[in-house]
Amino acid sequence: MRITYWLTCTKRAGRLTSCPSQISRAKPAVSGLKGRNRLEKRIPVSELRLGMYIHKLGGSWLDHPFMRSSFLLSDPQDLATIRECGIEDVWVDSAPAGPTARSAEPDSEKLPEASSAPSGLAGRKNGGAGSMADKVVRAKRICLAAKEQIRDLFQEARLGKAIDPNSTLPLVREIAASVERQPLALLSVARLKTHDDYTYLHSVAVCALMLALARQLGLDERQTRLAGFGGLMHDLGKAAMPLEVLNKPGKLTDAEFELIKRHPAAGAELLRAGGAEAQIQAIALHHHEKINGTGYPGRLTGDEIPLLARMGAICDVYDAVTSERAYKKAWDPAGTIHKMAQWEGHFDKRIFTAFVKTIGIYPVGSLVRLRSQRLAVVIEPGAESLLAPKVRAFFSLRSKEPIRMQTIDLAARGCKDSIAGPEDPEKWGFRNLDDLWMQ
Predict the structure, then answer these.
(1) Where is the HD-GYP domain (predicted)?
(2) pLDDT band at 101 (very low <50, low <70, confident <90, very high)
């Protein structure tokens, strides 16, 4: 039985207006529970017909023009868009076409102060220009443009050409504007990177995290700008690393790791040659240092590590471990915060506390257990409290079955529900929860 409960009310897939032609590997669609069989088959787009349920599009989530990778194909315009945008293959149900999902009756539990979930169409008229969905669409466009610009920058460095850090100033301004509108939109979208996108979108994510963290710390305009630039350029030295080592899908040997450890110094030198300010160079050089002196390359301790580099260390690690890589699965955002807090001597505690306030104890995309005995995914940070974000409940722990989606503002007056704690998506067999918070 395939699990399509969050699509019960969905009529169309959210689309972007652009139509990228460069398509890479697809990100898996959301699945249901471990042990439930889903019958899928891969077909060419020429065989795609209305009424089919698409589990996955043959392209990266960041490259194809849809807000989600899995949806019921019911709109002729969606079919035309898929055919026009260079998508070659899709994964669909192998079962005969039928109802999109079982009729999800409300769970017998009392639902506290909840509103019905939106249909999922990004930018729809009743969503409003300021809706989270609209900001996600804007963030996706920024990521698409940024990926190409950072790729070109790395390619120039790899070819031995002089780089001009100031050429990325418009990009940093665009990322800063997105962070100003809604920090979690860009940060959450940038986390959804494929292995092929990782190096470039990791730079974008760290830039956004640095800008948001700088705001939280109350840094002045100049320091904030330098933090953004440094985040975008922190891994430039990887352009000087052998591709077979940089892209190795498995664990590095000791010799390979020693080689990769040279990338901070290589990046700092590239930035120095390009005329970048000293503080930007310092972020590239020292973002792998640890407060207890066990980092590299300088084994610096405490305040010997420049402030912006201490910030960069936190932002770099968080995005790296919450991103899916060829050799590991992405960590759950909420679980990551908990683990990082336990790494004694790794990070500057004051800065890490500010970082948690920036992204929340339960970041967007986190799976949480509610006291009402439901599972929910965090869709927006809490405006007043780190412990009371907006969530989307979709599964009953009592019946062990999906329920009709409910969007709940845990900070709303009269709401009697709250988060009992984080949950590991792997424990429940959820392959990907991203479609839930993007609706």
Answers:
(1) 177-371
(2) very low
Give residue 436's pLDDT: 77
The CATH architecture annotation of domain 128-359 reads Orthogonal Bundle (1.10)
Instruction: List all residues 6 or more positions away from 83 whose beta carbon is below 8 Å from its beta carbon.
Output: 45, 48
| Domain extent listing, the chain | 1-104, 128-359, 367-438
Tens-place pLDDT, residues 194-226: 777 788 889 999 999 999 999 999 999 899 999
Distance (Å) of CA 34 to CA 38, 138, 253 = 10, 34, 34
71 burial (CB, 10 Å; 0-12 / 13-18 / 19+) is: buried
Higher pLDDT: 16 or 121? It is 16
Confidence of residue 20 (pLDDT cuts 50, 70, 90): very low
Q: Give me 410's structure tokens.
A: 């845990």
pTM of the model: 0.70
Q: How many CB atoms sit inside 10 A of residue 9's CB? A: 16
3-state secondary structure string across the chain: CCCCHHHCCCCCCCECCCCCCCCCCCCCCCCCCCCCCCCEEEEEHHHCCCCCEEEEECCCCCCCCECCCCEECCCHHHHHHHHHCCCCEEEEECCCCCCCCCCCCCCCCCCCCCEECCCCCCCCHHHCCCCHHHHHHHHHHHHHHHHHHHHHHHHHHHCCCCCCHHHHHHHHHHHHHHHHHCHHHHHHHHHCCCCCCHHHHHHHHHHHHHHHHHHHHCCCHHHHHHHHHHHHHCCHHHHHCCHHHHCCCCCCCHHHHHHHCCHHHHHHHHHHHCCCCHHHHHHHHHCCCCCECCCCCCCCEHHHCCHHHHHHHHHHHHHHHCCCECCECCCCHHHHHHHHHCCCCCCCHHHHHHHHHHHCCCCCCCEEEECCCEEEEEEECCCCCCCCCEEEEEEECCCCEEEEEEEEECCCCCCCCCEEEECCHHHHCCCCCHHHHHC
Beta-carbon contacts of 414 under 8 Å, excluding residues fewer than 6 positions away, are 113
